[in-house]
Amino acid sequence: MEVLVVGAGVVGLAIGRAFAQRGHAVIVAEAEDAFGTGVSARSSEVIHGGMYYPSDSARALHCVDGAAKLYNFCVNHGVPHRACGKLIVAADDAEAETIAAIRRQGEANGVPGLELLDAAAARRLEPALACTLALHSPRTGIVDSHALMLALLGVIEDHGGALALRTPVDRLSRRDGRWHAAFGGSEPGEMAFDAVINTASFGAPALAARTEGYPAERVPVLRLARGNYFGCTGKPAFSRLIYPAPRIDGGLGIHLTLDLAGRTRFGPDVEWVDTVDYRVDPRRADSFYGAIRRYWPGLPDGALYPDYAGLRPKLTGPGEPAADFRIDGAAEHGLPGIVHLFGIESPGLTSSLSLADAIVGQLDG
């Protein structure tokens, strides 16, 4: 089977790897001049546990399964990563109830090792922390996302697949039992494939609209949420990720993450935007200080500096609960041999290998 994967982010590369390992001829088409330059390049690089999501959701299923598969892949392919653990913290009694509910949801989802800690026990792990209650997730971790994508691409190429850069897909049409992809770029042309997976992230709805026969009413409205990150000067005060109790604003609050070198960064916040723009407004640090000091009172004045921003392709807007991953296959849209993925934001990186296996199962039986 000849397979086209549109989009060379972490999910697209994971899908390409899964098909290539099954012996299929794979091309991953990427409009930019390098892989992983969009959502995948500007995340917090966290391997999530999966305790936030409803048990019957695709997010819960693929996050928990994907985390286990991701750790195994990293070990087997030498991808730098660390299971540093995470504390989700409550600052008052109302938030403590939220934390307890997250634990129940996590256990229902099969997240391993969750443990509620009182304030004293949490401070024994992280002396700089302020909280009334904390949920410890020891299997939450961090990963080098670029190294992960490079390893996935390596598997694709080892099995005869290819990455085609600067190769946008202009339209998809169905003829003679195959999908014909019209490519743009400096060398436009057309090729036929037995299966197509649209993992174009921000461009996924537009490509769905340019897919012959795809129902127009199923094309989602893309909403963009920018997440700003700020770095922190000085010696790191924490060795684990610290997350506040989540709020219904499209994100999980201003949390503390670490990179593999131990550097501290904070974010993301949620800033609804209309265009792809990665600039960080330094003035947004003003709102970060108050949010961070609810769990780290010792944050010094002037310690935050603009680091980077990412954009999330959301299916819901301000004030609305986060939508589930949307995986549109033949059962949903009636077209054989094609799957469109929409709203693959966090925990997309963690879920990537699990999503890939599910899509191979749909298209390869």
Which key features would you list for this structure?
365 residues; alpha+beta; FAD/NAD(P)-binding domain; five-stranded antiparallel beta sheet
Task: Describe, in plain words, how this protein is organized in 3D.
By secondary structure, the chain is an alpha+beta fold. It folds into 2 domains: 2-48 and 146-221 and 322-364, FAD/NAD(P)-binding domain; 86-138 and 223-314, 2-Layer Sandwich (D-Amino Acid Oxidase, Chain A, domain 2), CATH 3.30.9. The chain is built from 9 helices and 21 strands. It has helices at residues 10-21, 58-77, 93-109, 119-125, 145-158, 204-209, 285-293, 330-333, 348-364; strands at residues 2-6, 25-29, 46-47, 81-82, 86-90, 115-118, 133-137, 141-143, 162-164, 169-175, 178-183, 189-193, 195-198, 223-232, 241-244, 256-258, 264-266, 271-273, 304-314, 326-328, 338-342. The strands form 5 sheets. Strands 9-2-1-13-21-20 form a 6-stranded mixed sheet. Strands 14, 16, 17, 18 and 19 form a 5-stranded antiparallel sheet that branches. A 4-stranded mixed sheet has the order 6-7-5-15. α1 (10-21) runs parallel beside α5 and α1 (10-21) packs parallel to α9 (348-364). The longest helix is centred in the N-terminal third of the chain and has 20 residues, at 58-77. The chain starts with a strand and ends with a helix. The model has no long low-confidence stretch (mean pLDDT 95).
